[in-house]
Amino acid sequence: MSRFYHFFRLLLPAMMLLHLPSAAQHHQRITGIVTDRDTYTPLDGVTVTTPDGAIQAMTDATGRFEIRDVPVGKYILYISRTGYQRQSIPEVLVTSAKEVVLHIQMEENGAMQEVMVTARKREAHEMAVVSARTFDIQETERYAGSRADPARMASNFAGVQGADDSRNDIIVRGNSPQGLLWRLEDLNIPNPNHFAVTGTTGGPVSMLNNKTLGSSIFLTGAFPAEYGNAVAGAFDLKMRNGNTDKYEFTAQLGLLGTELAAEGPISRKNKSSFLVTYRYSTLRLFQGLNIKLGTASVPNYQDAAFKLHFPIGEKGNFEVFGIGGLSNIDLIVSNLEDASGEIYGESDRDQYFRSDAGIAGASYSHRFNSKTYSRLTVGLSGHRTGADHEKVFRNADWEVDSLKPILSYTFATTTTSAHWYLNRRIAPGHVIRIGLINDFYHLNFSDSSRQYPPTQQAWQYRIGYQGNTNLAQAYIQYKFIPMRNLTITAGLHGQHLSHNNTKALEPRAGVQWQPGTAGTFSLGYGLHSQTQPWYQYFTHLPQNASDQMHNYNLDFTKSHHFVAGYGRSLGRSISVRTEAYYQYLFNVPIEHRPGSSYSSINQGNNFERIFPDTLHNGGAGYNYGLELTLSRSFRQGYYLLFTGALYESKARGYDGVYRSTDYNGRFALNLLGGYEKKLGKNSTLITGGKITYAGGRRYSPPDVAASYTYGDYVPLDSLRNIHQSPHYFRADLKLGVRINSRKLTHEVAVDLVNILGTKNILSFTYSPDLAGQGKDPFYRTYQLGFLPLFYYRIDFAPGR
User: Fold this and answer.
1) I need a surface site. Which of 315, 452, 482, 787 has the fewest CB within 10 A?
2) CA 382 from centre of chain
3) Sign of the alpha-carbon dihedral angle for 114, 116, 121, 123
4) Nearest-5° angle of CA 427, CA 433, CA 437?
5) How many CB atoms lie within 10 A of CB 731?
6) pLDDT tens readout for residues 695-751
């Protein structure tokens, strides 16, 4: 317990120092706008109240409301209007430094019936009736162990497996994480993570800054027709607007980054605003100050984000937005004096890795009338990764004998994107959305290797391609509300890949029914298709010319997804939700090799690029499972969340045998909770805890002879994924304090990740040296041990 005592001894004096007494309680303003969910028409006459009625307001003709002099604290707001479904917004945090600005969307009752339904949370998406969750950005900091990362926060949802401390890959219902779609402000975007490898959707550190994000949507299957080119899930991110009336600033120092943020009005009269953030790697900053970090392999990263918002008249809005990040790390082992030093990455080589990404776009939205709304977004994005490896040869005294360059690659993709859609309410209870998406890709890939087998001297070129391809998508979605307790959706999505003329047409449908107070039943179906990682289309075998691309004509991977769900409220703050699903994947790329068990389903969750031999779309797989979510929203000072999933995930290779996928842990359980207690009128103690227990990683015994000849791990096809690592267990704890003073809010906290120091297996790594000695050629590498992550944040609002 000495290490815990050490951190508490450092933390508590900081809390006491910041806890400055104040005789008067501080207040703040809550403001916002309420619009129709389908047409974005401002709604007047909407009442905004707390349960006790102490706080109340009503929207004006522009849909805006204002509540002044609200005491600092947390509140539940109820939103109601005749003809619309009543809803609740829990956990509205009011601090002294920043105004609370809300954008609330309301959904009409069927046939505009003048009735009220039981208060409920905001629905995630106007066209989604299953497997959709609203993503409250405050949850990235509220939940212990989430590291202010939206992807890691999503691992708390039922059906999402996040038993990996080294990466934030989102594994949805047993699918590969490469089946996930990332979308920002209606544009499909590349992997938004630092140190990201081509062909993956996750990474060690998120490039997304939670201080810029607004309410976003996470979908895990049978999603509406507007989401295409994904078979696992979709993360639809929205950036919030800056404050239109007041300048506000944030400064934060934390182990994961040193940050600055600013927002405020460009013109108070026109209600235009700006929002900007910048973050720099704290560890790199410490190194620059000559602070010893215990390793020379320090990650270097920085990122920035911005959004500008300009109202155009009473019915239009013009916005400009962007995010970008740079990252690199040098993993040097040649300067180690003995084998006992702490090593990150492979122990036989020096590695120089770099990864950059950026997205910039502009959008114009226009409300033609109370029934019709349209939005056009255009943008440019880029993603570039590269690495150089040098193998280290040592003599018997462990001295460096020589260095041999063995790998060099650069993968760059630039994408020009456009997304247009139009929403129209045809009649009360009838809404239609049509849209077009186009992504034009410019690709520049090069890769050369001479690492396998170890005796290889000549460079082997695996890809050398410069060219373009285009992915065009179109969709139509219809929502019908015949009565207030019944919603029916249907849609059709189509896509076309230009370079090999691949096409897909995908129907989607859903039903949601709420019979009285018995709860809500839902059914959903979707056919989904997805391209392969771009570089795999353009690779060639080392012995062939670069224009002989053996996987050029691969088809889309496809998936049928069926979901049935039931949910209900158990009182004001407790709700339960369960979903059962079955997913059948087909057209899956597999190797055209007798006896091969390879399936592309198993790739996408590590730092490797995969170069399989000739592929064809003859594979299949399936996932099925049952999920449960039990939650108690923040009330009376505490909240609780339990999520659980039981599932099965199988894939079939060329040999025709269904085997467990790499992601078939079979179960995942999360228990989270938090308690906040006022220490005075203006200060609050913050606590939180999380326990995760999940099935262990799958792995395969090696084909020893083939691995020794090749110089790296080669799985035994007939026994692929027959073994499973010990189950994953981790407990996290968060402690902090929030202090409000006049126009200034302090928050200091420490997130104690893996507080019990549990040793969870990360992987089994092949060692050619051990193989050469006739020993077991695989050794275990472990995930993070105990890791304290601190931050200190100041929010302040000078002037008015």
Assistant:
1) 482
2) 19
3) negative
4) 165
5) 19
6) 998 988 888 788 878 878 888 999 999 999 999 999 999 999 999 998 899 999 999
